Amino acid sequence: MTRQLPQKGEIFLDHVAHFVPDLARASTFFERIGFRLTPFTEQRNRTPEGLVSAGMANRCAMLREGYLELLTAVGDTELAGQFHAATDRYVGLHLIAFSLADPQAAHATLVTEGFKPRAPVTLTRPVEDPQGETREARFTVLRVPPEAMPEGRVQVLQHHTEELVWQERRLTHDNGVVSLKGVLLVVADPEETARRFGRFVGRAPRRRDARWLLDLDRGACVFVAPEDLDSVAPGVGVAPSAARPSPPVIVATALGSSDTELTRDRFQAGGLEATMPAPGEALYRFPPELGGSASVVPLEASVSWLS
To answer: Is it the case that residue 197 has pLDDT exceeding 70?
Structure first.
């Protein structure tokens, strides 16, 4: 299995999440286009008083590098309230999670950089292991106030149970998708946002033409102004302007496939048509129940808006 966890000093793009009011409908679509999803699980916080519901539940498509999450609200908590506020703006990509090896050091850095991080949270969810026994997947999550990172729920985390989260039996998908390569954001001020994200993860962004790029030890974030979206990522912004939410918006992911023809066939069978913004690259716009878009390239290739 590909190494999922960063070592000391590294930071990975761990996963992104679609906020979906109707998890069943979104899950049905993901399965129709060839993703194998984890079972429905409710997230819980471990507190001195015991396990407390986080008010959120998910299903995930675990990849050999990172994963895609479908996330919904199931309770009346602060996180659930943030979910409803986000989906009132648009249904789609609202969460970017970075993984690292030392959350304590990250917390200190976020304090120094003025992000006012909350106390680390021990998040758990029940997971069935290959032997059919229910065990507990555990994560340490660092979150900041929504106003500190208004682009979405942007967080850093440490995994404690890699063998439960990335089980071999859940990593093979009928559509050939194997990796999360990057995420594209439309923002009012790409330079300011890229530099702030850079301070958040401890990396320096760089400018390339009309976009700003933040390269990680695995994965990358790209920031572009609304007026430059069509030139940087042709096809992502084909919806009428009146239908687009105002920035900030997380608009697309970059996915690597072990077999792009298989990906095309399964996505097409599920009702998605591809546009070809660059040689060897296919762009798929997801339906309203999921939101967002995905640019798919061969595993070793780079998406046009990442290069």
So the answer is: yes
